[in-house]
Each structure stands twice: as C-alpha cells, then as structure tokens.
Amino acid sequence: MPVTRGFGSGRRRGRPERLPPGQYDTGMDWPVLTAEAQPELDPEQWTMTVDGLVDRPQTWSWRELHALPGSTYFGDIHCVTTWSKLDTTFGGISIDTLLDLAGPRPEAAYAMAHSTTGYTTNLPFADISGGRAWLVWDYEGRPLAAEHGGPVRLLVPHLYFWKSAKWVTRLELMAADRPGFWEQNGYHDRGDPWLEQRYQGDP
Amino acid sequence: MSRAPAGPWTTGRLVELDRPSDRLVRLRFDVDNRVDHLPGQHYVLRLRAEDGYTAQRSYSIASEPADPLLELMVECLPGGEVSGFMHDVAEPGDVFELRGPIGGWFVWEGDVTAVCVGGGSGVVPLVSMLRHARRLGASDRLRVVAVARSLEELPYAHELLDAGAFVALTRENLGDRIAHPPYPEEVAPLAEEVERAYVCGSVGFASFATRLLGEVGVRSELIRVEQFGATG
To answer: Which of A12-26, A103-117, A182-196 has the lowest mean pLDDT?
Structure first.
C-alpha cells in the first residue's frame, strides 16, 4: 500500500505498545456509538438470562446478580472506529460465575448476546469464558451511564467494543455460529483488535 | 433486507479538493475497483507514514451511487490526526488507501418513506440519500431536517435548501425563522406516516433528535441512528 505523501508518525499519542494496529489513544474521552435510540432501562424490571445449550437455563434479577461474587476488570478497551481507551476500570461480575450456575453443555461453541433493544452480537464461547468477559454496572466506581450501556452491559475487552453489548439481557449458547447485528452488516464475526479483524473478509 | 455491498481495501486518487468553510474539506476520489455503495454507507480513509505507522477514520459518503467519483465531506476537528491532515496537507493527485463501502444498517435505498434528522456534519449521509432520491424520482419519499448553528457551519447548506430540506439554525435567523432548535410542530408534518427515521450527528444531537422524533409520534423501533464522537 502506498505511503501517504507528507504524512509522518510524529503526531502519534499515547503508549504505542498498548495500541493495536490502526488504533489511537482517545485519552480522557469515551466516544459513544449506538445504532438505535437509547433505551431507558429500569434495573428493577431488567433481568439477565443464560439459556440455549446449558443444563440449567436461568434468569437473574438485578438484586440476585449483585448478591453474586463481584469481579473487576482493569485494562484497555478498543473500538472498531479506531479509538482505544487505556486503563479503564469496570465493576460487575465475571461471566464465568453465570456460566458455572447455568452449566454449559459440551457442544456450546458460540454465544449470542441479546440486548433489550433487539441488538445482538455473536461471540465464540472461548471468548466469554475463562476470565475474559464480564457483566458490568460500574465504571470508575460509579454507576455505568445510560449512553455507555447502563445500567448494565456485557464487557469483552479483548475484542472490539461492539461485542460488549450495551443493555444486555440474555446470553444464548449455541452449537453453530450465526451473525449478530453488526456482523450481518459487514463486521467481523470475531473482532480481535490485535489481528485487526474489523470487517467481514479480514483474516 | 439483502446484505449491503462491502468493499476491501483499495486505493483512490484525490481528484478534487475544496474548502467550503474553515472547518470543512470536500474530497472527491477516483477509487480503484470501486464497489458501488448504498446511500448512508461510509468509507475508511487510511494514512500511512514511511515507518509503517497508520491512522484511519470512517467518513460518511456524500456522493450518490451513480456518481463516478466518491465524495467525502470531512469536518476538521481540533487535533484531528486524519481530518487535520486532509484539511491542511492533502492535495489533488495524492493517492490514499480507502476501504468501503461499509455498513448495512444506516442505509436508504429509496424503498421506504423516511424522515431524516441530521446535525452539523451529520447531514453528509443524508445528502447522499437526497441525491439518490432525486435520481430515482423518489424525492417525495425522503424528508430531511438539517440542524446547524449557522448556514456557514452546515455542510451542503445550499444544496439542502434547494432540495427542499427543512433547515433549522440554532444561532442565527434564517429568513423569517428565529434561531432555535427544531420545534416538534415543525418536524411533525415531515414525520407523518413515515416507515423509517434516520438520525445522524453528535452524541448530544442524536439523543435530542431521537427524543424529538418520539414527541412527534415516531416509534423508537423505526429509528436508525448513526452517531459520532469527537474522535478526530
């Protein structure tokens, strides 16, 4: 690919070794991207379900989830629109906690995250288990703001951030992969930022 | 809906460049092996330094599919690595890496009656839709509300006015209209019996516009939103 005449790398900000290819450090900003009107979600009405290929399909209320052991993520997040945000802190629970209670079947190889808005995103099972995914309601010690998916969102920080479904309400475990919302609209099925898996057809 | 077209990385030569205002730069590219887009889709523009460092950003397409060139209107943001370069350094004849079209949600193919509400540079994809509508003879199916602080800051201001868009300026008067965000009674007639609504603009604008559409009776499931932050 051609070098851009007159373009130098001098303006690069942040810590390059922590930025995946094609990303930049957004600093204090946290840009917001959603495809639908932002819902007003009442935590008392909201529930979280894990079903599909599990032995014990379950639904938890807001209070029931808060009674489970908490878990915190400290690290970076990466959006496909090319911003990365370093050193974020999210509080909630590990998805492993929910999976342990629901009992995934051996044939569960993929998951579909469903939001209250109808938004969906598909993920390999390996990416939501083994300490790599969270259900979060706190950001930097404060309740997660609605525009960032509050009161509760999925957090899968090692993948591009569209996988971290806002206003998540259900994880459906599946034997075969099927595309979610952005994945039907040209985005990658896995979305690893270090492999730059932005769009369908990327490696 | 059938799957929207998508194109791989390619290159494009910048053929035309002009600066309609201090903060806007209009770019027209001759794209190699171009895949025709749908109005509302976007492209990624990538800059590459000699040491391999790259910076890329997404920009909505302003041109209609039938245009032989690809047109982007880039708003120059403070410290914007890509927008600043395109505004200050790029010249016709330069070759850029481009990828697109991308996105299959915020698209209008002329098949449904829609109201579109764009704020500032959020009108760019709506311009592509308007141009496409005119070519299809389907202008009656697309009603556009364009909001900006001033006419100077509204991309394609005169084209929007000529196409019959309702323009609401918030910091200066326009004809008899006193500066103010659009009122529900101004938008209500445009939102009557629409099958879909499109909202494009900053985060704050998008939440204002979706609320406004709700007030005039547009159900939230009909609304498709394209938001951008101050991401350079």
So the answer is: A12-26
Average pLDDT over residues A44-52: 96
CATH class for the region spanning B9-102: mainly beta
| Residue with tokens 């609304």, as numbered in its chain | B223
Q: Are strands B142-148 and B166-169 parallel, antiparallel or unpaired?
A: parallel
Q: Return the amino acid letter for A103.
A: G
Residue B232 has pLDDT above 50, yes or no: no
Superfamily of domain A21-26+41-195 in the CATH hierarchy: Oxidoreductase, molybdopterin-binding domain (3.90.420.10)
| Contact residues, chain B, for A84 at CB < 8 Å | none
Say yes or no to pLDDT of B64 above 60.
Answer: yes
pLDDT (0 to 100) of residue B1: 43
Q: How far is B4 from chain A (nearest CA, A)?
A: 7
Q: Are A189 and A78 in contact (CB under 8 A)?
A: no
pLDDT digits (tens, 9 = 90+) for B143-175: 999 999 999 999 999 999 999 999 999 999 999
Under an 8 A CB cutoff, do A32 and B203 touch? yes
pLDDT at B20: 93
Q: Which residues of A touch B106 (CB under 8 A)?
A: 35
The CATH number given to B114-228 is 3.40.50.80
In chain B, residues with a C-beta closer than 8 Å to the C-beta of A33 are 227-229
Measured between beta carbons, the chain A residues lying within 8 angstroms of B91 are 5
Which residue of B lies nearest to A5 if distances are taken between CA atoms? Answer: B94
**B79 CA to chain A: closest CA distance, Å?**
9
**Stretch (H or E) spanning B206:** helix B203-215
Please say if the pLDDT value at position A111 is more than 80: yes
Instruction: Report the residue from A24, A35, A82 with minimal CB separation from B224.
Output: A35
* Separation of alpha carbons B3 and B25, rounded Å: 31
What is the predicted ipTM? Answer: 0.82
- Exposed e or buried b for every residue in B56-71, given b needs 16+ CB within 10 A? bbbbbbbbbbebebbb
